[in-house]
Structure formats: structure tokens, C-alpha cells
Amino acid sequence: MDFLVTNAPILIVALPLVAAFAIPLISLSRGGDRGRNVFSLAILGLIVFLVAILARDVHAVGIRVYTFGATAAELAIPHGYTVPVRIIFEVDGMSIFMGLVITIVALASLIYSLHFMKGQTGQARFYSLMFLLYAGMMGLAFTGDMFNLFVFLEIASIAGAALAAYRTNRADAVEGGFKYIVISAISALLVLFAIGILYAQYNVLSIAAIAHFMQHTTLDMIALGLLAIALVMKLAGVPLHMWAPDTYTVAPAGTTPMILAASYTSMYALYRVTFTLYGGLINTTTIGWIVIIVGVLSMFIGVMMAVHQTDIKRMMAYHAISQGGYMLLGVGVGLAVITNPAALANYGRDAMNGGIFHIINHVFYKALLFMTAEAIFFRIGTRDTNKMGGLARNMKWTAAFYVIGALAISGIPPFNGFASKLLIYETVLKFSPVLSVIAMFVSLVTLASFTKVFYAAFTGPELPAYKKVKEVPKSMIIGMSILAAFIIFFGIFPGLIVNTIVAPATNALIDQAGYINAVMGAVP
């Protein structure tokens, strides 16, 4: 077991990379599609186990540092050196939090896709790209150096763009994939330019080492600006959100949740840069307010754009932009008061807990909602709510899952969205009552929007063309059930989740010194 825990960080990234290249070969073998599906589930099942034991170790022991090319006796900094010279994975509470989010969504998405993709061409490429996307996201969450943050960001971007454009027979799919890769390319160039600025000054790439030596120069601030713009663009924050509706709408059902998770992995990277790389060297009050403003704009503009949509997935895509604002609002409040110990203890830390808790909650219920929308498309061939009606009669499970997701995203108890939103409302109220009122207003509009779609799609008279419509296959129901179970569990036991995985993630972000010392040790 010690061997697995020690090597879990690299195995979690290496296994999906190996699977991505092995799947086409397995598909061509005698096992064919069945062999590929069994292999994919087995690999992901092993990865789930590795993520679970790594999470247990990180929460029990502390930061886990994996140094490539080093023996167990060697440190991150080899003898005779004063800086890290090898590639490093550094897994703390925030890293493993994102690892859990990504892995649960990947498991549900893979199971959902097994029947959804049945009979379609290019399945080997589809599953290879899913594993590449997973590897890119996990590598980004675990990496301890800036250059590999760029590398894994690129891997995830290329795989995500290909998956978004998977239905090449549809012009909107090609357009969605093209927009995603263009935005990703621009973002990657900005990140690479920022890395070049930092490397030119400090001659290191390790996040911990750069944070240790950073002098808060003008160039450092330029690099921060480039990184912030790039990562806000990737997480679809207003005003850089233009790609998200076109990309989320056209991606196949099993991959939309993973592309969504990739957006919040970029949000993780933004938090890592802001808290860990720059830490106390920046004006946290100003930066916090910038994050708050982006969050509020994302919440309000996203929900207002969603209300008018008749394409069910496009409506959900705009709501994804809106919900991202809650995460930015909570963490922005914490960042704004981080230098004020009294305010941080009173409400700042809890505001961050709410923002981070909302990441996992939102990914789960939004993934479930995207799956229900794609289940409707799978059966009736349209996403237009004006052409739907009475589907609950024959698609009872899909209707039930939609209701669970809709109530969760609207912040209705006892579902998980209520738990994280309530925490954000209460803490933000102490910081600024106006911001709290805006957040609650957005939730009311969200509820109205999803109620309207529920009535249009699932209730009312059954259209003659849909009288023979059947429920989706069992694998799709199982995929949705996994997410629904987490939504309900997190809503009933929010305190357990906050104390177990959310608070350690918040503490890891705030504890810049702990992240640096795990690599740099006592280096002056």
C-alpha cells in the first residue's frame, strides 16, 4: 500500500495516458467494442481507487511531493543544489479536491457514454480523447511547476476541442470545437508568455521556488495579469465567456460534463496562481474585488442570457457561466479580507469554503443536467424546448434526474446547491449585503428558468410524435444516478463534506508557506 500511495500521483496521470493509446489497439483486436469498454472501466476503476487512497493520505499526513527521477531517499532538491531541478508533482488539499471532482465526473461520464455512443463511428478515438482529457486535467491539478501546467493545459484543451467537434456531420459541432481551440490557443500563448517572464527573472519553473524567490517586480505583475486573463478566458468568466455556450451545447453528453470540469480546473489554476504563486506579495484587497466583480458579472449576465434560450443545452451552458460566478464571489471575498485576521476568521474563510464547496456541487448538478438534456436529444433528436412536451410520461427517470438537478442549481433544500449557496449568502452578507442580495436574486431567476423548461419539456400534452418514446438505456441511467446520489448526499450531510474535503482545500490555498516548504524546506 505504501508503494501505491507514494506513486499514486504519477500513476493517476500515467494510466489514462497509457489507456488513451491502448484503446485503439484494443478496439482492433478480437475483443472489439466490448473489450474496449471493459478495459476502459477497469482502468478508470483502478484510478478511482488510487485517487481515494491518495486523498486519504493527503488529508491524514499532509502535502505529498512526487519527484520524477528521484529515489525514495532523495529530496525534491538534489544534494548540492539550492532549487528544484526535476519535474515535481505536489498534491495538497486543494489539488486532491480537484482530483476527486474530476474523477467522479469522469466515472459518471464514461458509464453514461457506453450506450450513448453505441453504434456510432470513431468510438476508439472518442474514448481515447476522454482519457487524454482526464489526464490533462489531473496533471494540471497535480503539477508543481509552471511549464507543465502549460503542457497539461494544452493536453486538456486539444482533447476537449476534439470532443466538442466529435459530431463532425453537424456544422454547429465543428464551430463549437473551433471556438474552443482558438480560445485555448490564445490562453495557452498568454500562459507561456507569463511563464517566460517568470523564468527569465528567477531561472526556475517550480511553483514553490518561484513563490519563494519572488520579488514583486513590475514584470511579476505583468505575468500575473497575463495568467489571470488566460485562465478567466478558459473558465468562461464574463467578459471572456463567448466560447462556452457554443462549445457546451454541441459536445456529446458524456463529454460535456468533462469539458465543464476542465473549465473549473482552470479556475483551480487561477486560485493556485493567486494564492500560492503570488501569495501575500500582491494587494489582495484589490485583486479580491476584481475577482468579486468578475463573479457578479458572470452570475448576472449568465442567468439573464439563459432565460431567453429555447435550446435546452444552450440554456444550461449560460447557467454554467452564471454558477461560476458564485465560486468567484466566495473566494473573492476571502481573498479581499485575507490580510485582516479578524474578518478572515469571522467570515472570510467560510466564504472561501462556500466558493470551493460550490465547485464540486456545481460540477455534479450541472453534469447531471447536461446528461438529462442529452438524454432528451438521444430519444427525440431535438434540443428545442418549443418542440417538446409530455416527455415525463415515458422518460420518468430522466424527468426525475432533471428535477433533482434543477432544484440543486436553484439552491433548494435538501440538495447540495442549497448548502454551498447558503454558506455564500451568509458570509457575503457580512462583507456586503448588496452582493448577497444579487446572489439570491440570481438564484430566483435560475429557478424560474428551469421551471419554465421543465414545463415545456416534461409536462403538458404529449405530442403525437413522442408517444412511442422510451426511457434511455440503463448505462445512461446509471451514469446519471451516480451524480444524483452525490447531489443528495452532499445536500443532506454538508457539514461532513465541508470538514472532510472542502476546509482542507481552503486551508491549503491560504497556507502558502506550507506549499513552499514542502519543496524548498529550509532553503534560505
Query: What's the helix-strand series?
Result: HHEEHHHHHHHHHHHHHHHHH
Q: Calculate the mean pLDDT score and round it.
A: 88
- The share of residues in extended strands comes to under 5%
The 3D shape can be described as: globular
Computed Rg: 22 Å
Helix content: over 70%
Through-space gap between termini: 35 Å
Q: Strand pairing plus helix content: what structural class?
A: mainly alpha
State the oligomer. Answer: single chain
Largest sheet: spatial strand order: 1-2
Number of helices: 19
Q: Main β-sheet: number of strands, strand sense, barrel status?
A: 2 strands, antiparallel
Beta strand count: 2
Would you identify the regions where 5 or more consecutive residues have pLDDT less than 50?
Answer: none
Give a brief outline of the structure.
The chain is an all-alpha fold and 524 residues long. 76% of the residues lie in helices and 2% in strands.
Structure description:
The protein is an all-alpha fold. The chain has a domain at 283-492. It has 19 helices and two strands. Strands 1-2 form a two-stranded antiparallel sheet. The two termini are 35 Å apart.
Could you name the key traits of this structure?
19 helices; two-stranded antiparallel ribbon; single chain; globular; 524 residues; mainly alpha
Task: Summarize the topology.
Layout: H1 2-28, H2 32-61, E1 64-67, E2 88-91, H3 93-116, H4 123-142, H5 146-164, H6 171-202, H7 207-213, H8 218-234, H9 244-250, H10 256-278, H11 284-307, H12 312-336, H13 341-380, H14 396-409, H15 416-431, H16 433-458, H17 474-492, H18 494-510, H19 512-520
Antiparallel strand pairs: 1-2
Helix pairs in contact: 1-2, 1-4, 2-3, 3-4, 3-10, 3-13, 3-17, 3-18, 4-5, 4-10, 5-6, 5-10, 6-8, 6-9, 7-19, 8-10, 9-12, 10-13, 11-12, 11-16, 12-13, 12-15, 12-16, 13-14, 13-15, 13-17, 13-18, 14-16, 14-17, 15-16, 15-17
